[in-house]
Amino acid sequence: MGRFIALLYGLVAYLVFFISVVYAIGFVSGLGVPKTIDSGPVGPPLMAVIVNLLLMTLFAVQHSVMARPQFKKWWTQFIPPAIERSTFVLFASLALLLLCWQWQPIPSVVWRVDNTYLADFLSGLGLFGWALVFASTFLINHFELFGLHQVANNLSGRPMPKTTFKTPLLYNLVRHPIYLGFIIAFWSAPIMTAGHLLFAAVTTAYIFVGIALEEHDLTALFGDEYRHYRRRVAMIVPFLGRS
Fold first, then answer.
1. 112 phi and psi angles, rounded to 5 deg
2. How far apart are CA 125 and CA 31, in angstroms?
3. Cα separations in angstroms, 126 against 121, 130, 142
4. In this structure, is residue 196 part of a structural domain?
5. Do the beta carbons of residue 151 and residue 7 sit within 8 Å?
6. Residues lower than pLDDT 50 in the chain
7. Does 16 fall in a domain?
């Protein structure tokens, strides 16, 4: 029964993740959701900046802390290891939904692309960025990344397979195609408001902090294999940023 409950918990966490990401796509691109990055009551700009920075900080701290091996080792003293990833996914999804819900728009226009073809291209490029994010998760192991593999194996009594280092397709062009997709999605805006610019700039800065933390963990896990990979493959932009 406990294993079945863990499976249900993992499915609920994945469903919340799916809803939050679909909403976030509409939130950033301004399509198909009731509240976007540029909609809602407009208040004093300084207050909006403070609120938005607090929301992004909450997401960043939750995401970074719960993803660290040291936290996972401590956390799994209190929760079953099989649902550790699902719990991380659930908390991250709730933090993202909170950000979308409480985001304060700052509608001052920083740039506007009036050429219809170029505006459509930028909108399409943003959607391509989201597609790149999803495609990159499936190239590794989408269901393990979001906790479903763990709860399914737990239900059947099978242990999780040993973590191996692999670099399929896009991962031979850049080390972090998921983050590249996010950057493309966040910056490809035909109309860039001050609020959207704040979101894009802060999240991009956090992405590079996250990369540094993640690569530290990956180097500790895979050693020279990952060091050679860093020397061979660019970080974000193909052929640039090798280390």
1. -140, 125
2. 14
3. 9, 7, 21
4. yes
5. yes
6. none
7. yes
- The residue whose two tokens read 């649902």 is 83
Residue closest to 10 by CA, chosen among 66, 88, 65: 88
DSSP state of 123: H
Question: Distance between CA 118 and CA 70 in Å, rounded?
Answer: 46
Work out the number of other CB atoms within 10 angstroms of the CB of residue 68: 15
Residue whose structure tokens are 């993202």: 96
Which DSSP category does 171 fall into?
Answer: G
User: For the chain, first and last CA: distance in Å?
Assistant: 49
Q: What is the pLDDT of residue 240?
A: 76
The model carries a pTM of 0.92
The pLDDT tens digits of the residues spanning 44-67 come to 999 999 999 999 999 999 999 998
Q: Is residue 83 situated within a structural domain?
A: yes
Q: Which amino acid is at 149?
A: H
- The single-letter code of the amino acid at 174 is V
Rounded Cα–Cα distance for residues 99 and 101 (Å): 5
Contact between 209 and 153 under an 8 Å Cβ cutoff? The reply is no
Q: Which domain holds residue 55?
A: 2-232
φ, ψ dihedrals at 110, nearest 5°: -90, -45
Domain count, the chain: 1
